[in-house]
Amino acid sequence: MHKLLLAATIAALSSTSVFAADLAARPYTKAPPAPVAPIYNWTGLYIGAQVGGAFQGSSGFTTNDPAMFGQRDDSSFIGGGVLGANYQFSPNWVLGIEGEFNGLSNNRYTFDNGVDAARVKNDWLASVTGRLGYTWGPGMIYAKGGVAFRDNGGIAATTPVLVSRDTTGYTVGAGLEYMFAPAWSAKIEYQYYNFDHTNLAFASGSTVNYRDDLHTVKAGINYHFNWGGPVVARY
Question: What is the number of other CB atoms lying within 10 angstroms of the CB of residue 167?
């Protein structure tokens, strides 16, 4: 009897070993790599559009005529286009150059003493500026500065007047830009324009002198022809 039980046990163990040997080995699979955050690259050309408001700078003036009255528009609509290029380095700094052209809905300074009257108007502003920015991925803060231009625009008077004004000045500004898609960014920007002083001399002998400057706030959107845009690190 014991011999039969021993034989049966040995047979059972042998069949189990053979069955286990027939099973395929469990394949080894490597865990997938963790998602890699995109590395944003601001280097490249871009083009954009912007809209906003222009607001009077200095509204004061000096004159030798106590009867002279002067008034300046408080604000104006501003809108136009931008073309620029960036180079990202070191690795969070961005150096660039930018040109822009903007039209003005109204930017007038008027003077009247009851006999002599004149209106001086600007129709557009332009600038070429350098930019220096600091970026943290999709966001960038920047400062800009350079040369500003304007038209020699609308000058109208009821009596002969000689107007001396600069069409070239300087501009400085700062802004925040955010890359919300691989080739698209949005920005908000402050920019100050200064064209020194404008002088008016009427044939009657009355003179006027005022500082010619503007403050602007603009919102815009840029398309990057990317060398830039987010780049995913490879392993």
Answer: 12
